[in-house]
Amino acid sequence: GTLSRCDAAAAVLQEAVAGHGVFLVRQSETRKGEYVLTFNYQGRAKHLRMTINPDGACRVQHLSFATIFDLLEYFRDNHIPLESGGTSDVTLSEFVIASDYSARSAGSGQGGAERRPPNLPDTREVATHGGSVRMTTSALERLQYEQSNSGGSTGRAVENTYTYT
């Protein structure tokens, strides 16, 4: 699904300046078929447009990559270029694991002309991962499940459904 610019910013800014380098990739709201790398740059959300060809090749400004995974791995070790043409001092660190933000996006303004502060999600709603971006969906789901169930867990089953026969 899609994630609004506002919700993407809120997700990467969850830890403010301490989250420098936290990122996510989302579909562009305004340009169909294009994607955006949204990342935390010194406590501010930056959005870098990416073009992905039908064969999977990815382009950001003057840089080309065989896949989006190659692009993300490259920017884990190399500074991200800014839209202004300069180079930032940020490399990608942890990525935001997808969550359901659609309920908060329902009342968004039209046309993007309205600028308002993002609705910051609760801390428990945003999970990040610093490992490989080349994860299968099932591995990501397992990671998300483990992270959501590890907070203060005693290892005891709660809310189990029992059937008596």
TrEMBL record:
GO terms for biological process: intracellular signal transduction. SUPFAM superfamilies: SH2 domain. Residues 113-127 have a biased composition (Basic and acidic residues). It comes from the Eukaryota. Keywords: Phosphoprotein, SH2 domain. Residues 1-96 form the SH2 domain. This is SH2 domain-containing protein. It comes from Cherax quadricarinatus.
